Amino acid sequence: MTIATTGSSRTDSEDSLGIEDLRRKYRRERDRRAPSGSTRSYTSVAGEFGYYAKDPYTARTERETRTDAVEALVIGAGFGGLLTAARLKEAGVDSVRVMDEGGDVGGTWYWNRYPGIRCDIESYVYMPLLEEVGYLPRWRYAPGEEIRQHAIAIAEHYRLYGDALFHTRATGLAWDETLEKWLVSTDRGDRFHATFVVTSSGTLTQPKLPGIPGIETFRGHTFHSSRWDYSYTGGSADGGLTGLADKRVAVVGTGATGLQLIPHVGRDAEHLFVFQRTPSTVDIRDNRPTDQEWAASLQPGWQRERMENFLEVLAGEPVEESLVQDGWTATVNLQRQILSGAVDDTISPEEREVRDELDDARTMNRIRSRVDEVVTDPATAAALKPWYRYMCKRPGFSDEYLQTFNRPNATLVDTADHGGITRMTETSVFVGDEEFEVDCVIFATGFEVGISGVLSGTLPVTGRGGQTLLEAWGQGIQTLHGFATHGFPNLFHLSALQNANSVNFAHILQEQAEHIAAVIGEGRRRGARYLEPTLEAQQAWVQEVAATASDTRAFQAECTPGYYNGEGTRSIGGASYSPGPVVFHRLLREWRATRMREILVEPSASRQPKAVSAGVSA
Questions:
Q1: Which pLDDT does position 562 carry in this prediction?
Q2: Treating both helix axes as pointing N-terminal to C-terminal, what angle do 79-90 and 505-526 enclose, rounded to 10 degrees?
Q3: 599 with 480: CB under 8 angstroms?
Q4: pLDDT digits (tens, 9 = 90+) for 452-481
């Protein structure tokens, strides 16, 4: 059943629209989702909404404050932080402290435990350090709990728990000019020194809520999908949500998270209302258990080979064989609209755009046709069809989501003409004048993009001479290779900014971790006072990123509002190194071999490196 706010169902003419007709259709659908030029606003889970971000999984325990010193502090215990800590250990840095706001390691896989959660990248290339830890995933697309347990296994394998600080948020980093170390402050009262600091706090970490008028007045039960309340729903990530058997449940959001959890809520709730502003593309997932015969045939080095091959295919580089053949590798050309990588330069840009737009139209027509094949009600099928180009939203995959809307207890509420939910009251959710009484609202509304740590200002960083990092970046981000900034010695960042990007960001994080560990290891070997990019090298890199930047603004301006285009207000293009991750990783290897001097500050004859202080006063 659908609440028909779309005004029409599928027509035969829409199945054979030409490119110009498609463009007009896409623009109409984009404009429907931003009435009068407005875009949906979101509310941070802070202040009166701070309880949405609390940890429901691990009890906070009291501990003594730290006033000691470590050689390396890694902020963030997701895969980026774990990989960095592991590679630092391998490089001979024994004193490595990992710190995270969560109650354990895992990052997004610690927080996200909603029913149905799985990785949408093949687990054999997504889950890092499989050979090092001695593990092979049970499924091609692994469930969240298996991934979380693998994160724990990495921490145990590299002995990272001994000096880990959980439920701890860094509140300040200040360069100590005398000791030439970082003074670290936290929300637990810690004040300790670290010779090196690496931030890996992620770009999708802070949950967000839609800015719905009256959201605070609702008296039913609410929670965010990244803090799933199993005490209310019952069951587990495998389903069995028996607590919802007599509940009318609203799910707000139909992105990647919604695609996974909605089938479980639909199976177990008395009634499910799915509030959709923009439908996702829903392609075939085809998950399956790991082939044991294939697993037995694997030779040492197989994972790196497979990861590199997947990255090369997605980056548009030539390969003899594609080892991972799935929905991602089938849409490589279309991904160039958002993700950096090689392009076909044997034809003109105009010819390439025509070819890619035709490929895009064929792909989207196939995905829309699948909706008709699966969903029995024509009006519901019409509302579920995505009318935009393929990479306007992160592509989705599911073999259960569309089928949910054939259930008699599932209602799709299309909010497009209202730009989202209109308001909430003590008992109901409104779309326009239509009222939906519900007992529970689950917000599958994602995260604040890029809002974490040093970028958000929630982690003030003060470098040499009292300059803050945000001041240094006041006229634009200034880094060498995205990792380090002049004026902020021994400080490294993991992110896609002026670095590489890919749909398999775990691979990008692995390369970043290896680079940082190699730089720190070489600095220690040479006895460098500290590691800091020269101003000349930094300026040259910023100029190179700008000169090679791809401009995605025109493409994203035609897209429906979403997190890729800042709800229709900005473009994410230009942040990463446009020639692509394969070229970038090759560049880093060459730089480490020949140009490491651009970041090493050698000790003078009169000033040898200082030993790490045994303690620091508060």
A1: 76
A2: 30
A3: yes
A4: 556 556 799 999 999 999 999 998 999 999
